[in-house]
Design goal:
The chain has 671 residues and is mostly beta strands. It folds into 4 domains: 119 residues, Immunoglobulin-like, CATH 2.60.40; 111 residues, Immunoglobulin-like, CATH 2.60.40; 136 residues, Immunoglobulin-like (Sandwich), CATH 2.60.40; 136 residues, Immunoglobulin-like (Sandwich). The protein contains 3 helices and 41 strands. The strands form 9 sheets. Strands 21, 23, 25, 26, 27, 29 and 30 form a 7-stranded mixed beta sheet that branches. Strands 2, 4, 6, 8, 9 and 10 form a 6-stranded mixed beta sheet that branches. Strands 12-19-18-14-16 form a 5-stranded mixed beta sheet, with no helix packed on it.
Length: 671
């Protein structure tokens, strides 16, 4: 009889065979019988010896219990899983170990798979949070700025700022923040300084954009780069949080400055001697500039004597109320320098728009320059006077004589010897043929006037405080356009010091002359209708012609004024350029010509009526009183004036009229 272990082995073999071996076709009897034989045969599957069956043994008694009370429960073994092996294969320890290994590998695979699923879920959720299309993020807000890369200083810069909202919700409460560079002003009639500007924006729905125009006047020096910072802060619908987005800094280059500063002065000065520094402020703009503030910074060893014009703030600030387009204005500073020989110092100048909170501080620098001076020791005083002008920048009428006086003073406590004075005249108005020199010599090769001891013995020795004068005269051309004359004066001398060492003293001075135009007025009278010569109680019409002529230079603000006698009637018929104004009360005529080019002539024709009275018989009445022509020379800035005598009723003999054509006759034609 098979043992319990054998029965268990047979049971599990059948179970495994049922699982692992497909069921055969029941019609195949032979295969079924073969299967049965294999199941019940005693021989092992590997062909080993047959296991003998256990038999029954007689004579052994078994005590069989008759009830449950005396039965001792058998120990319950832990449940175990018997390894499964194919039919015919005995279960060995290796099979059992392999089964356990497969169970452990299966658990490892499950654990690894769970970890992998967790990691993939974590990565996927993170990527969604970062790149998800429904996320609210500053990356979904774009802030772009469009505008020119260069602009002329003082012009209005126009920028196009665009805020694009690609968030899934609208943004609201947005504020555009613009930080401007120093010197920026608002655009408009009353400009103010701009530092930071905040512009409130309307809500921007999802998927839309909003364009905001920005205008500001940018000031700066030529080739200076200006940076504008633009940002926006905002809130989104359904959130109280505030977000912030900054655009790339916008850079613009100032390609030209509306102002140019130029310093005209000598470079070497003497200690203790007065000298002039001339600053020329020139407009480079196409339109007039207003309220330009100019500031000067002086060194400690420079003392102000006077300025022209007078400073508006202390002695170093000037406000130019209006600077004409392409026009110039000058500031002359006279001062005294002190210091050691070869010591250098700087005078700095700035010009620009004043700050809105302090008109005496340059808010935006449009131009700046500096003048460098070197102190020379020792020195003699030199002064150049042109037609009585001592400022070094004389303006005189063209066509007349130019008288120059040079005064040299020994400003030291010891005598100077062998003084030598040289003057180099240059400029378009200089004409050698019209030069007259007193006690001097003109070197036509070197183009220099000289005064030396050989021609002037008084130059051999000049005591402390003594002066020497040198004179010459120049003629000028009346028709020369923008005529100028520059005079560079240099003085040489020597002194003997206590150590008997000879020293050369060098003094220098500059003077410039500009020649204004000569303007003139011409007039003519012609008979138009009525009795001629004029007859008592009968009206005669005349045509009057006025001609205003500019000189060599351009003119501005040209006006011709005249008046009519009380017995002359204004017909109010005229023809000519400009604007004509007539006051019937005082019978004054104003002809506003305005701008005139050099050598240009403007003509005005108009009609008047004359009805003689009885008391005027035998006289030649005046048709128009004295005429006056005024204008401003655009080159020199000097006022110009010309006059013409009254116009009478006498007609021109060149036109065929006799000398009695203007004498009033009686009603019968008698005088």
């Amino acid at each position: 009889m098979p043992s319990t272990a054998q029965h268990s082995e047979v049971f599990w073999r059948r179970r495994v065979s049922a699982i692992l071996i497909p069921m055969p076709d029941f019609k195949d009897k032979e295969r079924l019988d073969a299967l049965r034989e294999r199941l019940y045969e005693r021989a092992p599957a590997d062909g080993g010896p047959t296991t003998p069956r256990a038999g029954f043994s007689a004579g052994r008694a078994f005590d069989v219990a008759r009830g449950w009370a005396n039965i001792t429960p058998a120990p319950v073994a832990s449940p175990s899983v018997t390894p499964v092996a194919p039919i015919g294969v005995p279960i060995t320890p290796e099979i059992v170990a392999s089964s356990e290994k497969r169970r452990r590998s299966y658990r490892t695979y499950i654990l690894l798979a769970s970890i992998a699923v967790f990691v993939l879920a974590l990565v996927g959720s993170s990527l969604y949070l970062i790149f998800g299309s429904n996320q609210i993020s500053g990356r979904n807000i774009s802030l772009t700025v469009a505008g020119p890369l260069a602009i002329a200083g003082g012009n209005v810069l126009t920028l196009g700022v665009t805020v694009d909202n690609q968030n899934p919700v609208a943004i609201e409460g947005a504020t555009l923040i613009i930080n401007y560079p120093s010197g920026t002003k608002s655009a408009g009639e009353n400009p103010r300084d701009l530092f930071e500007e905040r512009i409130q924006l309307e809500p921007i729905p999802s998927g839309t954009s909003r364009a905001i125009p920005v205008n500001a006047a940018i000031f700066g020096e030529e080739n200076e780069e200006k940076t504008i910072e633009i940002a926006v802060d905002y809130r989104v619908t359904g959130s109280n949080g505030t977000f912030f987005k900054r655009a790339e800094p916008y850079k613009v280059t100032v390609n030209s400055s509306p102002l140019i500063l130029r310093v005209e002065s000598i470079e070497k000065v003497s200690a203790g001697q007065e000298f002039d520094v001339k600053l020329v402020v020139q407009s480079n703009a196409e339109t007039p500039l207003s309220n330009v503030y100019v500031n000067a910074t002086y060194p400690e060893n420079f003392r102000i004597v006077r300025t022209e014009p007078a400073a508006d703030y202390r002695d170093n600030g000037w406000t130019l109320k209006e600077l004409a387009a392409k026009g110039t204005q000058s500031i002359t500073i006279r001062g005294v320098a002190s210091g050691l020989s070869e010591e250098s110092f700087l005078i700095r100048f700035q010009a620009g728009t004043p700050r809105s909170d302090n008109q005496f501080i340059v808010g935006s620098v449009l131009a700046q320059t500096a003048a460098t001076f070197t102190v020379e020791q020792p020195f003699v005083g030199v002064e150049v006077v042109v037609n009585g002008d001592r400022d070094g920048d004389a303006v005189i009428p063209s066509g007349g004589a130019t008288e120059v006086t040079i005064t040299v003073t020994n400003t030291h406590a010891v005598p100077v010897y062998d003084m030598n004075v040289r003057v180099a005249p240059t400029g378009s108005a200089f004409d050698e043929s019209r030069l007259e020199v007193n006690h001097g010599f003109y070197d036509s090769v070197a183009k220099t006037l000289r005064w030396e001891v050989s021609g002037s013995p008084e130059l051999a020795k000049v005591l402390p405080g003594e002066e020497r004068e040198f004179r010459f005269k120049l003629g000028s051309d009346r028709d020369a356009r923008t005529a100028t004359l520059d005079l560079d004066t240099t003085v040489y001398a020597r002194r003997v010091s206590e150590s008997s060492v000879a020293e050369e003293l060098i003094g220098a001075a500059k003077a410039s002359v500009r020649y204004s135009s000569m303007v003139s007025v011409e007039r003519q009278i012609d008979h138009l209708a009525g009795p001629l010569p004029p007859q008592v109680n009968k009206e005669t019409l005349y045509t009057l012609t006025l001609a205003a002529t500019a000189g060599a230079n351009d003119l501005s603000g040209a006006v011709l004024t005249a008046s009519l006698p009380q017995y002359i009637r204004w017909v109010n018929t005229y023809e000519g350029p400009g604007k004509v104004e007539f006051n019937p009360v005082n019978k004054e005529l104003r002809w506003l010509i305005g701008e005139m080019k050099g050598r240009e002539q403007a003509m005005l024709t108009f009609q008047v009526a004359f009805t003689p009275g009885l008391l005027q018989v035998g006289t030649t009445p005046v048709m128009m009183n004295r005429q006056e022509f005024t204008a401003t020379d655009r080159f020199t800035g000097a006022p110009l004036r010309a006059e013409a005598s009254p116009i009478t009723a006498e007609l021109s003999g060149e036109a065929g009229f006799d000398s009695k054509s203007g004498i009033v006759v009686g009603e019968e034609g008698s005088e």
